[in-house]
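Q: What changes when zinc ion is included in the input?
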Amino acid sequence: MGWSDIMQTAHLVMLIIICIEIIVCCSAISYCIMATRLRNRNDLGVIEKQDLNHLKKVDLIGNDNFGSDAMKQADFMNRYAADPFKDEEAL
Amino acid sequence: MATLCPNCSGNLLYSPSRHAMFCRMCGGTYAPEEVGESQRTSTTYECNIYSCPSCGGTIAVTGTEVSASCVYCGNTTVIFDRISTNQRPDGLIPFSISQKEAVEIVRKHMADAALLPKGVDDIKIENMKGIYVPYQIVSGRFYDSMTIFADHKNGNNNSVPRYYGRAGFCDLLNIPVEAVSSINNDFSRQIEPFDINDAVEFDEDYLMGFYSDIPDVTADELSDAAGKMADEMFGNLMRESISGSNKHVLQSRYWTKLYDNNLMLFFPVWFYTFVYKDKPYTLLINGQTGKIAGTLPWKKRSLKRDGIILAAVMSILLIAPFIIFDRLVTFNAMFTVGFTGFFISLICWLVGYQESSSVKKNAGMTQEGSVFNFVNERKG
Ligand SMILES: [Zn+2]
Ligand SMILES: [Zn+2]
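A: The predicted holo structure follows.
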């Protein structure tokens, strides 16, 4: 087998790989377009935002900014973990 | 239980387009409070309960109207079950969308839908049924604590994640909660809101020509549903207090306590049921505003075929240059196509998957089993 044969085989393999890559990519694009098409057609199921007037006299008891520290969320949630109506019933 | 015409003794039905009781025999119209025996001092009213042997759904009828087919599954034999005495609602919003208008709304909805299978748009007016759905109008106290995420831009225009904590309490005022356990709340909420300002005092006459449901949710279920809605509202309110983009609630915990003085109102809803490939589908239409909800079936084969054709055409167009210009086939080209292709594919699969699962979720709600929980309920 000569050098040119090897080169030709390599060339063919590369062509096949490129074809497969393109086909996979085009299938993905097509799938996405079809799914979006269906989604747009069925663009229902949207629950309208509730009228905020249903909430009266909103009083904040906790108002923290943790910056970029995601871990502080747990502390915050723990601080307000007790059932506030438990105390009310005890009174 | 029927209301008769003072002129000719024909049966009077409530007519949404005339906003009055209407006699089909002589054409007379009357205000609901003019006709029929007034039972406003009573705390109950009577109706006939029909049940469906196929799906187990029940529906209440007042007056002489006989239920010809099942509202929920389209089955054509429904049987008279019993006479039931129910608590009178405090009021109702009368239908203002007529059956004909509701059919037009469905027709338009179907005309706008691509890939609609043949035969589905053959609308049968007798499958369009007006049902008064009971809602509890609840008030109470509400506590909520949540953490919220937002993206901020720093000086170099890079996104920086920010975390916030918000806790608070408030009064809930007049939140309408759908009170029939067999109707999926996530579905009925899609046709809300209803405008309570149009509500009138309850009078049986409004039910003539329509069906009604009987409220059956427990106090706990009511409190859960109200809490879920209040949590969304509280989340919306808190998000508005934060700057940045891509804001969303990460965690939340809430407590709801409803007061006992609920109002029960009947809200008007048109149910359109059709059967496609042996599966019942139901669309809901708000009988006050005309807002429609429900996912229609689609031609699966056509969608697949279109997808394959599109993919094939794109592939051929992109592959052709490599075959025609032999020199283009190099290691560089292979890697470039590989990398860009990989990222485009990844994004497309993700977006496509998200879109199709949201369609499927909604489609599932339109179909049997999830819209109405009868079958599961009876089995369990
Ligand atoms: Zn008459
Ligand atoms: Zn049925």
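Observations recorded in class: Residues 349 and 355 of chain B are 10 Å apart (CA to CA).
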